[in-house]
């Protein structure tokens, strides 16, 4: 599995753009709830990162998308699962 840190900067950029928040305000562990992110916005985030990384993530993983680090971990696992033998 790739290091989830590999995805953090791009995920931060995606969230910053979507929420119109400066990227420097987004720490890896800042809870999305603290940023005012709704469940609908989390679903949209999931869709964006799926497209950005060419992966499919089960909607059951939505509960793990609570901060940038959580999104990075989910994406890292999805990328690893798509690799041969993954």
From TrEMBL:
**Which Pfam families does the record match to this protein?**
PP-binding
List, for all copies, the residue spans of the domain called Carrier: 2-79
Parts of the chain that traverse the membrane: none
Q: Per its record, how is this protein called by name?
A: Acyl carrier protein
Q: Which organism is it from?
A: Amycolatopsis plumensis
């Amino acid at each position: 599995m790739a290091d989830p840190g590999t995805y953090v900067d791009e995920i931060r950029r995606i969230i910053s753009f979507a929420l119109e928040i400066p990227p420097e305000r987004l720490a890896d562990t800042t809870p999305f709830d603290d940023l005012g992110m709704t469940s609908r916005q989390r679903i949209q985030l999931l869709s964006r990162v799926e497209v950005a990384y060419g992966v499919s993530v089960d909607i059951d993983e939505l509960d793990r998308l609570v901060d940038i680090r959580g999104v990075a971990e989910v994406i890292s696992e999805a990328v690893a699962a798509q690799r041969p033998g993954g």
